[in-house]
Amino acid sequence: MTLATVAEVARLIFDRPLLKHELDIVWHAGEPLTMPPAYYKQAIEIIERQRPQDVAVHYGIQTNGTLIDDAWIDLFEQRNITVGISLDGPRDLHDRNRKYRNGSGSHERALAGIAKLQARGYPFHFIGVVTAPTLSRGSELIDYYQGFGPTAIGLNIEELEAQNTHSSLYEDCTRETFERFIGDVLRAAAQQGDRPVVLRDFQRTMASLIAGVPEDNDQVIPLRMLNIAYNGDISTFSPELLALNVPQRQRFIFGNVHHCKELGDILSDDRFISAYREISDGVASCASECEYFEYCGGGAPVNKLSEKGSLRATATSYCVFTKKAWVDVCLQFANARDNQFEVSLKM
Ligand code: SF4
Questions:
Q1: Radical SAM core domain: which residues (predicted)?
Q2: Which CATH superfamily groups domain 3-211?
Q3: In a mutational test of the pocket of ligand 1, which residue from 218, 237, 288, 290 has the highest number of ligand atoms less than 8 Å from its CB?
Q4: Which helix (H) or strand (E) holds 155?
Q5: pTM
Q6: pLDDT tens digits, one per residue of 219-248
Q7: Smallest Cα–Cα separation from 299: which of 319, 284, 313?
Q8: How far apart are CA 114 and CA 128, in angstroms?
Q9: Could you tell me which residues come within 8 angstroms of residue 122 by beta carbon, excluding any fewer than 6 positions away?
Q10: 323 CB contacts (<8 Å, ≥6 apart)?
Q11: What's the CA angle centered on 38, arms 34 and 44, to 5 degrees?
């Protein structure tokens, strides 16, 4: 993304009254650190120049960690940037899918980046992708992550979405197997003694169970998440809608930062109106059909589209593994006597 595009993004996002007092800006997808620290320094300066005084902006980067060095950590420290490391666990699990063009895995270099963060005492969290071979190693996975002292651990699943047309989980894993994996993960987390594990998926699930109100689902509410492509194309709802193949992707581009006068313009775009109608229909069907609706809020549009071919769909493999299984296992653990978990309602 050019700095001129960054300036246009800043102009639009600080457009009142759509914005309240807090904003998270996260660079992710592809590998954000392939651009140099100087680029982000300038980009953040541009954003900060346009930021209203009563709006707090939190910056974040999701990276594979392989390029982290002291220059990066200087920038992270200067701008208090939240760092997420994409690490799928021990070497064999990670290198199975995260390879360079020459076929070698990136695990070793990711660990070198993590070691730099640790040496400087800079906090980071992990996001890992769970594939079929991970399922028998839930306990080992938690021990492995915890050994690095992360602030939190998030477990994504290998999804069938956008350009990822294959999922080992969907092919080889039953709901029972996945629930056993979650149980192993939670038991391992509970046994970490004086090193409490902050497990994103457990926190989210328990927070929605305790709150007793329908899940506020950012992926189905317009402009909760504003997703901007490298060229300034604007989308909203699931971020991965921007990763769809052309021409499907075109359906979810509702404007461009270089052409919109204000952010609200996208709400009158025909493609937005059509997508929002279909997504809302899907949410309404979820609400009437699914007993997990209040813990889910109607799922992820991109997964409905990728798995079922329609934004109006309801149940997907994605929601079985990321919502239903977690709710059921968390309820079992929460109801167990002498459980050793704590839940923070703020993540
Ligand atoms: S769990 Fe699945 S079917 Fe139920 S509300 Fe969520 S997306 Fe819809």
A1: 25-129
A2: Aldolase class I (3.20.20.70)
A3: 290
A4: strand 153-157
A5: 0.92
A6: 999 999 999 999 999 999 999 999 898 888
A7: 319
A8: 14
A9: 73, 76, 77, 83
A10: 292, 295, 296, 299
A11: 100
Q: Say how many Å lie between the first and final Cα of the chain, rounded.
A: 29
Q: How far is CA 15 from CA 182, 199, 222, 253, in A?
A: 42, 35, 16, 19
Beta bridge partners of 74: none
Q: Which of 215, 216, 317, 319 most suits a substitution to test ligand 1, by most atoms within 8 Å of the C-beta?
A: 319
- The total number of residues written for the chain in this structure: 347
Distance 300 CA to ligand 1 centre (A): 9
Burial class of residue 340 (count of CB atoms within 10 Å of its CB; 0-12, 13-18, 19+): middle
Render pLDDT for 9-50 as a digit per residue (tens, 0 to 9): 999 999 767 788 899 999 998 899 999 999 999 999 999 999
Q: Of 31, 113, 128, give the one whose Cα is nearest residue 65.
A: 113
Residue identifier of the C-alpha nearest atom 2 of ligand 1: 315
Order the strands of the 226-228 sheet from edge to edge.
226-228, 233-236, 255-256
User: Peptide bond preceding 247: is omega within 30 degrees of 0, i.e. cis?
Assistant: yes
Closest ligand 1 atom to residue 290 Cα is 4
Q: Among the atoms of ligand 1, which is closest to the Cα of residue 283?
A: 8
Q: Which of 157, 292, 312, 318 to mutate to test the pocket of ligand 1 (most atoms within 8 A of CB)?
A: 292
From ligand 1's centre to the CA of 212, what distance in Å?
17
